[in-house]
Amino acid sequence: MSTIKEADALKHRCQVMNSMQKRDHKQLWNGLRNDKFDEFWAINRKLMEQTDEGPFRYIPFRIYQLDKPFIQKLVKPVNEDGKPATLENLIETVSSDIKKDFSKSISRLLIQGIELPWQTPLLWLSENFSHPDNFLHICVRS
Q1: Are 116 and 69 in contact, with CB atoms under 8 Å apart?
Q2: Residue 2: is its pLDDT beyond 70?
Q3: Please, what is the Cα angle at 27 between 26 and 31, to 5 degrees?
Q4: What is the DSSP secondary-structure string of 77-108?
Q5: What pLDDT digit, counting tens, does each position of 103-125 carry?
Q6: What's the Rg (C-alpha) of the chain?
Q7: Distance CA 28, CA 42 (A)
């Protein structure tokens, strides 16, 4: 539950979690705990949607590499020029070493076990490939 709250803080400034009633929190937890997807998703959908204020404030993600701590930084869904940020922009922002390994074809990026195009928009990835904790979990495979 703490990572769901953390993801909401990054996306919506905790507005969605704070506006939920106690029964909503309970339904979210029980749905997750008891493997009742419909119960869980009825509430989690609110956390995955954009609000009236526009797109997510930041994209919740973690990058995992073998024998290294995970990487998590603040990355916005749009670039400074207003264009949608991509997976490539994310990698350039968080680690030049990872980018170098990809240019040499040493590493691969996997999300949900799938290698995605570098030009995939981050907002789309966050909405469609996030885990139940609402984070994108990205694995670097050598």
Answers
A1: no
A2: yes
A3: 120
A4: SB-TTSSBPBHHHHHHHH-HHHHHHHHTT--E
A5: 666 678 899 999 999 899 999 99
A6: 16
A7: 8
Distance CA 11, CA 55 (A): 8
What is the spatial distance between Cα 117 and Cα 95, in angstroms, rounded to a whole number? 18
Residue 12: predicted pLDDT: 86
Please tell me whether residue 137 adopts helix, strand or coil conformation: strand
Tokens of 97: 């070493």
Phi-psi region of 31 (alpha: psi -120 to 50; beta: other; left: phi over 0): alpha
Q: Give the pLDDT confidence of 27-63 residue by residue, as tens digits.
A: 999 998 999 989 998 998 888 877 777 678 999 999 9
